[in-house]
Every structure is written in structure tokens, then in C-alpha cells.
């Protein structure tokens, strides 16, 4: 269980995250939505300690995440993998090496410095690439891959950490709808098959509805919605996105990920375009 207790993060006078408390059980798939600047990235970055809290605490089991230092902090960051909108690969290195870099925190510093990987690590990396359907790219420089392929390499690298939790900061914001679907399907598969908690920031409401069992809506640093997609009513959407007007609708926060059947990999099913659910009587 991840426990975020009354966490605030300030940048000077600006409050990026304001007294947020959340309990996230192991194995949940959580989508965080909200306008640009709502505090979504800052919240994720505090969970894996790329940013520090100003007040409050973050706990995972008996670990006080927000005050870890040294080896214990590195151990936490291994358990808590993160992927980013811009993939953060090393473009001139081949895909296989990029994936094996996910093992760095598992190995001695000297082996890491010399970039010596064992046969077992190579096999593990190939298995991760196969799982993501991109094993044929293993020897290509990562920078030559498409955005969707690069994000899958980043996910394979995260899997090499054997994490308990996967944080994804707008993982599909730079991708076309087909690649967005492939990446979201991969995150869902990792969540369901491996029991890894996935917490992902998303700009697209329909993606959050389709893939996440729990949606957290943030506005101006605070959590203003926390519940299952079915509870995300028109009023809740307006509160999250700040709509006093009546012209907020799902299309404003949507890049449709309906994919023609002939473009889907075998076995995949097109996602259903979800409808905004208005509360009874609204
Ligand atoms: N390193 C920083 N220094 C100063 N201010 C920051 C820093 N990081 C974030 N902020 C500010 O904190 C607030 C929240 O930013 P954050 O990036 O967390 O929002 P977000 O919801 O993830 O937005 P987006 O969807 O555009 O990424 C913003 O006002 C932002 O300008």
C-alpha cells in the first residue's frame, strides 16, 4: 500500500501540490487527470523522489519514502520505476543496451561503470522486448525508432528493474492514437499480469476511463475527484477542468483511441469510445 499523507509541495510562493492524501493499494491501475499545471507531474515525482515534499509524508509499507537517503533511496527508486513523455532513452545506444540499463541499480558499481552485462541479463532484456513486441529492434540505435517503439523500450527498461510500482508521466502525450493504444495496452497488461501498481498522468479523459479502475482528478494542486470512472460525472469533469461554462465536453480532453480493426495487432480489441456520463437529473 502506498500512503500519501497530507503532502504539500511549494515552489517559492507557488503551491504545486496542496495537502494531498491518498491510499493506493498494491496492484491498482490509477489515472491522474487535470489541467496543465494542476500538479500531476509534481505528485508523481515526489512518489519516486525526483522531487522532495515540502510538508507531509509518503509511505510504502514500512518505508518512509519521503525521508529515505543513500542505498535505501536507490532501493526505493528501483522498486518504483518511472517512464516519461519523452522516453529518456540514450539515442545512440542500441535498444538492448538501453533496456539492460534498467538493471543498473541491481548491480555493483564497477560492473555498471564498465557496462558489462551477464548472459542472464541479456536474456531478460530480450524477453522484455519480446513481451512488448519489439524484439526485432534489439540491435538498432534507440534514436532511430518511432516514438511508440521508444516508449515500449522505456517500458521494457522499467520492467528490468522488477519494480513494485510503475509511474508514467504522460506516457502517450507524444504518440499517435495507434501507438497510444499499444502503450496503454502494455501498461494494463503489466498491471494485470504482474500485479504491479500503475499510476499514470493522462491528458486524455477517455483513455483514463478506458484503462484505469480509479481516476484521481487534480485542480490547482488539490485532489478534487477520486473514484471509479463510472462516478466521473459531468459536474466532476467540470470541477477538475475548471469549467464554469457549459461548453466542457469529453472531446476537449480526448484523442480518440478507436483504431480500425485492420490496424490492430491480432487478438487486440478496439476500445469503445466512452461517453460522458451525466448524473441523473443533471
Ligand atoms: N521545478 C519547478 N520549479 C518551479 N515551479 C515548478 C517546478 N515544477 C513545477 N512547477 C510549478 O508547479 C505547478 C504544477 O506543475 P506540474 O508540472 O506538476 O503540473 P502538471 O499538472 O503535471 O502539468 P502538465 O500537465 O502541464 O505537465 C505549476 O505551476 C508549475 O509551474
TrEMBL record:
Protein known as: Phosphonates import ATP-binding protein PhnC
Record has Repeat as a keyword: no
InterPro entries in alphabetical order: AAA+_ATPase, ABC_transporter-like_ATP-bd, ABC_transporter-like_CS, ABC_transpr_PhnC, MetN_ABC_transporter-like, P-loop_NTPase
Lineage: Bacteria, Pseudomonadati, Pseudomonadota, Alphaproteobacteria, Hyphomicrobiales
Family designation: Belongs to the ABC transporter superfamily.
Residue ranges annotated for the ABC transporter domain, each copy included: 2-245
One Gene Ontology MF term: ATP hydrolysis activity
Any one GO cellular component localisation term in the record: membrane
Any single Pfam family the record assigns to this protein: ABC_tran
Keyword Cell membrane appears in the UniProt entry: yes
Gene name of the encoded protein: phnC
Keyword tags: ATP-binding, Cell membrane, Membrane, Nucleotide-binding, Translocase, Transport
Highest taxon listed in the record's lineage: Bacteria
